[in-house]
Amino acid sequence: MIQNVVITGVADGMGRHVAQMLAAAGHSVAGFDVDSQGIASLKNELGKIGGDHLLETIDIVDRPAITRFRDKVLSKFGHVDTVLSNVGIGFFSPFEEANLEKALKCLEINVIGAAAIFQAFLTSMRERRKGKLIAMSSLVGRIPFPFESIYSASKFAITGMVLSLKYEVEPFGIQIALIEPAQVSTTFAAKIHVLPPENSVYRDRVRRFIERDDELIKTAPTPPVAARKIVKVIEAKKPPLFNQIDFMSSFFLWLNQFLPRAMRDTILVNHMRIKV
């Protein structure tokens, strides 16, 4: 079935590839991103692919702009079938040394950003008694990783918000799904991986964590591979609630269900090579 799909964080990475794949499959795509150059180049690409699209430069924290965007989308397409909340930023720091003002920005973008785009289109979906709300969470939305406390908090919040929302909207025919990648081979992590100061008691373990993460990224799924799996969730008649991109996510989540916490913690610490 051909759909009208809204995507946030569409200018780069997985969001961009999802938009391209959806357009190539005949779906209509509406989306926005704060990256104006990325939006401009994606407009050109989607124009060449064909199909209907509406792309704008919007900051996810600008709620009035999101409302205006919603009105334009509904005016142009009549309705929206699926909303993919893909926008997000990373946050990496020992908790003791975390800049809480930057942490607040991370939570605002990652959590309230998802809430804002879902809320914008929820009323029209409820009235049609049909639609899908899909949120980009993470492996760390259920299994916290060291030095990612703020980012983990944002993804735990997204997971909790969506699981709670599920009870509220399912009676109106609205389906809910979460995407939970562990790692995707992008520059996302490299942009936030910064060593603490020389005098930090966490510096050595953070260095080992970064080195290990850099190793893992080399064999992680690429954005097109991840995007294909996301498109399958969008196109599914009844998508699963939890959707992993890669084997690592599925494996760790499986372990998380059955192993004692002490054993799970040991595996994680050894896997990331940060044992004291």
The first-to-last residue Cα distance is 53 Å
> At the first level of CATH, what is the class?
Alpha Beta
Domain unit count? 1
Major sheet: arrangement of strands: 3-2-1-4-5-6-7
Oligomerization: single chain
Q: What is the H-and-E element order?
A: EHEHEHEHEHEHHEHH
**Rounded to an integer, what's the Rg over CA atoms?**
19 Å
CATH architecture classification name: 3-Layer(aba) Sandwich
Helix content: 40-55%
CATH topology: Rossmann fold
- Count of helices? 9
Task: List descriptors.
single chain; 276 residues; alpha/beta; Rossmann fold; 7-stranded parallel beta sheet; 9 helices; 52% helix; 12% strand; globular
Précis, in short:
This protein has 276 residues and is an alpha/beta fold. It has helices at 13-24, 36-49, 63-77, 100-128, 149-169, 203-218, 223-235, 247-258, 261-271; strands at 4-8, 28-33, 53-57, 82-85, 131-136, 174-179, 242-243. The model has no long low-confidence stretch (mean pLDDT 94).
Can you describe this structure?
Helix 1 packs parallel to helix 2. This protein has 9 helices and 7 strands, in the order E-H-E-H-E-H-E-H-E-H-E-H-H-E-H-H. By secondary structure, it is α/β, with parallel strands linked by helices. The chain has one domain: NAD(P)-binding Rossmann-like Domain (Rossmann fold), CATH 3.40.50.720. A 7-stranded parallel beta sheet has the order 3-2-1-4-5-6-7, sandwiched between helices. It is globular, with a radius of gyration of 19 Å.
